[in-house]
Amino acid sequence: MSDKYKEGLNRSQQLLFPPSLNEYVDEANPVRAIDDYVSLLDLKRLGFSDTSNSLSGQKSYAPKLLLKIYIYGYLNKIRSSRNLEKENNRNIELMWLTAGLKPTYKTIADFRKDNPKALKQVFKEFILLCKGIGLIGGEIVGLDGAFLRANASKNTLIMKRTIDESIKQAESSIQEYLTTLEYSDEETVTNKLSKNLPRNLEKILKKKQSLNLI
How far, in Å, CA of 108 to CA of 135, rounded? Predict the structure, then answer.
């Protein structure tokens, strides 16, 4: 490569001091707000189901971990459990947020199915909290097709009507997101079944033929 351009690291070269995930996520990154917020929540009190009882005997993923993934997905418009899984495998922010753990899309989807009301409530409180302390800034903030209008001035008093409006907008946006997730996950299952159907039909027909010969 020409000396005129910057060169990256040799991918095959082992580093003496491997960089930590913290080096890739600066202090101002919004994922740190998600992490801090979820760490303070009492999920049992909020009505989240207990995921510690795994039928396989393996350790399960902590509900707080799965909740962090969903809040990140909501704020970044990631609209299916498969896409959440994919992003968690390649997105450095999510890798940081989940400390490198990699739940499958099914685990992610099941968490949503088991906790729809609790998820809605946490989403709403998180958005309103961010809005209230100025983490959501700018003229318009887009959240999954809905818009929350931030205050033009930090000194402006938020009137009750504005708060009510924000709550309604947040609730509408959250409902849209959860509905989209549900639809996307169902469509994924249907597509998977459709792809496997010819092969499964062939197996069924062969089995039927063998039974007829008996």
Answer: 26
